[in-house]
Write a structure and sequence with these properties.
The complex is a heterodimer. Chain A is an alpha/beta fold. Chain A has helices spanning about 25-35, 65-70, 90-100, 135-140, 145-160, 165-180, 195-200, 270-285, 300-310, 320-325, 340-345, 350-365, and strands spanning about 5-15, 50, 80, 105-115, 200-205, 205, 215-225, 235-245, 260, 295, 335, 380-385, 390-395. Chain B is mainly β. Chain B has one domain. The chains are: A alpha/beta, B mainly beta.
Chain lengths: ~400, ~140
């Protein structure tokens, strides 16, 4: 029998470009805020799970948790470092959850911290320059950038459902409107459909303001067992469900960096994420109707239209109407990314899924100043990472 | 002299250009590019053979790449170009450059066939070529 797990504390460094702060410093800051938020101190932390970055820190081996404790608290605790690319934060959460649910630990910290390189994410060293490496082929054979993959999905949606350019732009408008009230977001100026459509076309039909850039940021969570749930005096937040998953054979999604897929009609699009979501819902004993807030990876405006449909919140093709009629707003039927999402934060890859759960925690406590969803009781996160990694967390008050 | 962007990706023969893929003889699944294993979890035997893939298909979706990709992608006289996702049948969808069609005349469902596209030519006349899809004028799927 597993033990109940609770979110005791959350902390995040503001997202942006921080050329004068190291990845380690961002990490330490976020952890200090989360520990303080939980009403705890370092000696009470019994384990640290970090999302491993390939860009900075971790002693070059992805040892980000070890690096943190060696900098601020050498106390013999287990340090676990997990890979999962842009979903690494969700895998870190799942790992920390398991450490507590199993009864092995009572208080475990989760960390994701990232400083992103400028421009395109470079190909990692050591890859083969031949047909065995998709990330080689997609460049040399056709120059397919990440936005091209998402744009191919968006154009197909326009064909299938008649989605308009204005509706895609409206998704970006909503994210910026939500971010205006969130002090942690990087892009907080409200925008308009006209302004989004006037921004440079990157990959038809997606404009610059419909695609998330990269940012620096860090987020941390403190998870704990029943005996710690009252320590901070804040409204308790419980982990109702959490799950990670990988892709299914036959997934029709255009998976970066592959140049082809073998597709089956009966397999879900973006199956690594939909499977994680279904598992998290099953674990929580809930259905989509029980969810008040969805914090999801909006790498583009297209994701905001497609993903809630894939998760079963409503029928395929209905996202346009939901968006355009305010149903996804703060205060709507399903608040999607009240934080402002990746479009307003920019993606600090491995930190992003941790930030999603921080946001849900603050929302459920009623502490989301400037962008609070009224009467939020249940929140869900959903994230996707390279390697067909998916993760989802459901919190409830 | 034409050098392919990668060995083993496509073949040029009397029939034209064909992509080189893998067929799993056990579960009858096609893969591109060539794969060391069959990814179907229900397939037990996973007997693989190299195959030349169908050279005609229909456009499933597309985009226009409006800004220049990183240097690993080399192309003389760069200008925006189209990338398509092409349904070759048998569940196989392949990405590739679209050629010989104006950017505003691309339509999902259009019939396409494989072709070669020269990306760069050096001072010795050596060119690097990739596969591309062009309108199939012998058919009209749209």
């Amino acid at each position: 029998m597993t033990k109940p797990v609770h979110v005791l504390g959350a902390g995040a460094h503001p997202w942006g470009k921080w050329p004068n702060r190291s990845q380690l410093q961002l990490a330490i800051d976020a952890l200090a805020m989360a520990i303080d938020d939980a009403g705890l101190s370092w000696p009470e932390i019994q384990g640290l799970v970090a999302a491993s970055s390939r860009f900075e820190g971790g002693m070059g081996w992805g040892l980000h948790a070890n690096e943190v404790v060696q900098a601020v608290a050498e106390q013999g605790i287990p340090c676990v470092n997990v890979g999962g690319a842009c979903a690494a934060g969700a895998i870190a959460f799942q790992t920390a959850y398991s450490m507590i649910a199993s009864g092995q630990c009572d208080v475990v910290a989760v960390l994701g911290a990232e400083r992103m390189p400028k421009g395109f994410i470079p190909r990692p060293p050591g890859s083969q320059d031949d047909i065995t490496d998709s990330d080689y082929l997609r460049w040399v054979a056709m120059g397919a950038t990440n936005p091209a993959y998402w744009a191919i999905e968006a154009n197909r949606r326009k064909h299938d459902f008649g989605t308009t350019d204005a509706t895609l732009a409206q998704a970006s408008v909503l994210m910026r409107r939500n971010a205006a009230g969130n002090r942690l977001a990087r892009f907080r100026n409200p925008t308009t459909i006209d302004e989004v459509l006037a921004s440079p076309m990157v990959s038809d039909p997606l404009h610059l303001l419909e695609i998330c850039p990269v940012s620096d940021g860090a987020a941390a969570l403190i998870l704990g067992s029943e005996q710690y749930v009252q320590r901070s005096g804040k409204r308790p937040v419980h982990v109702a469900g959490c799950a990670i998953a990988t892709g299914q054979f036959g997934d029709p999604g255009r998976r970066i960096p592959t140049i082809s897929s073998t597709v089956s009609d009966d397999v879900s699009h973006t199956s690594e994420v939909t499977t994680a979501v279904q598992r998290a819902l099953a674990m929580a004993g809930m259905g989509p109707n029980d969810i008040d807030i969805l914090e999801m990876a909006d790498n583009t405006a297209w994701h905001l239209l497609a993903w809630p449909e894939l998760f079963g919140f409503y029928e395929a093709g209905q996202g346009d109407w939901m968006l355009n009629n305010g149903k996804l707003d703060i205060g709507g039927d399903l608040a999607v990314n009240p934080s402002g999402g990746f479009l307003s934060f920019g993606e600090a890859t491995t930190a992003q899924a941790v930030l999603q759960v921080c946001e849900l925690t603050w929302q459920l406590r009623g502490e989301a100043q400037g962008h609070q969803v009224p009467d939020a009781r249940v929140g869900m996160s959903a994230v996707l990472g390279l390697g067909a990694n998916g993760g989802s967390v459901i919190l409830k008050t | 002299m034409q050098i392919p962007v990668a060995e083993g990706l496509f073949a040029v023969n009397g029939a034209g250009v064909q992509l080189i893929g893998t067929r799993c003889c056990s579960c009858d699944t096609l893969y591109f590019p060539q794969t060391p294993g069959c990814r179907n979890p229900l397939c037990r035997d996973k007997q693989l053979e190299q195959v030349l893939l169908p050279d005609r298909g229909t456009l499933y979706s597309y985009t226009v790449q409006r800004y220049q990709p990183p240097a690993l992608f080399a192309m003389d006289a760069w200008s925006p170009y189209a990338l398509g996702l092409v349904d070759l049948g048998h569940g196989l969808r392949v990405m590739g450059m679209l050629d010989d069609v104006p950017l505003d005349k691309i339509a999902i469902g259009m019939a396409l066939k494989l072709s070669l596209r020269t990306l760069t030519t050096d001072e010795n006349g050596q060119s690097r070529v990739t596969y591309a899809f062009v309108p199939d004028t012998t058919k009209d799927h749209a």
